[in-house]
Design goal:
The chain is of the alpha/beta class and 208 residues long. Helices cover 51% and strands 16% of the residues. It has a 5-stranded parallel beta sheet with strand order 2-1-3-4-5, sandwiched between helices.
């Protein structure tokens, strides 16, 4: 039998939190823990009325306790809430009316495996919003959804294959200063330590 998934539950009101904890504690697929017991890689389950500023504040507190992936169960879930949740890096969204114990376990398991879960009727709107962002904001700046320009992507790919600054400059017909500035821009923007860290980050996030 697979190791139970470590789950930390929080809600905007005590009654919802107590109910969720009670319904999830008897599931063999999960191991419900308190905040002090949260392990690296745990899944957070957050119940709120709607995805607003207060909900995002609770989300931040869950992340601070090492719950890396968070599933939000909301009583009211609209397009604006889905976009806010996506921008905050929420891994799963579920309407409270659909949050049966079996469905919750299914979503938590999917999220633990790296999948994202969004109500089907809102997914299309989210994709349209992403397309609009790409067209109106990123493309005019020469950037993709990764936040990297094509130049930055090209430079990181060559760094990843072991090329030095001079080689990269020759291959891409840039000056060495341009290559150095490009790498500096990436490490600064994403708060990375050095070029090796930048490559590791880009690979992990699927940018290159």
């Amino acid at each position: 039998m697979a190791e139970p998934i470590c789950v930390y539950i929080k809600a905007s009101d005590p009654l919802s939190e107590t109910g969720l904890v009670a319904s999830m504690r008897n599931r063999p697929e999960l191991r419900v823990v308190e905040e002090r017991q949260v392990e690296q890689g745990a899944v957070g389950l957050l119940a709120v009325d709607r995805v607003d500023a207060a909900a995002l504040q609770l989300l931040g507190s869950m992340r601070a306790s090492r719950a890396e992936r968070v599933v939000i169960v909301a009583s009211n879930l609209d397009e604006e809430g889905v976009i806010a949740a996506a921008e905050a890096g929420v891994a799963g969204l579920l309407r409270r009316v659909e949050a049966t114990p079996d469905r919750l376990v299914q979503v938590i398991t999917s999220v633990c495996r790296g999948a994202g879960v969004v109500p089907p009727d809102l997914l299309g709107r989210l994709l349209k919003q992403v397309a609009s962002l790409q067209h109106h904001v990123l493309t005019p700046r020469g950037m993709g959804l990764s936040g990297l320009t094509s130049r930055e992507t090209d430079v990181l790919r060559l760094v990843a294959t072991g090329h030095g600054t001079q080689e990269i400059a020759q291959k891409l017909a840039y000056s060495e200063r341009t290559v150095k500035n490009t790498l500096h821009d990436v490490t600064s923007r994403f708060h990375l330590r050095n070029r090796s860290h930048a490559v590791a980050y880009a690979i992990r996030e699927g940018f290159i």
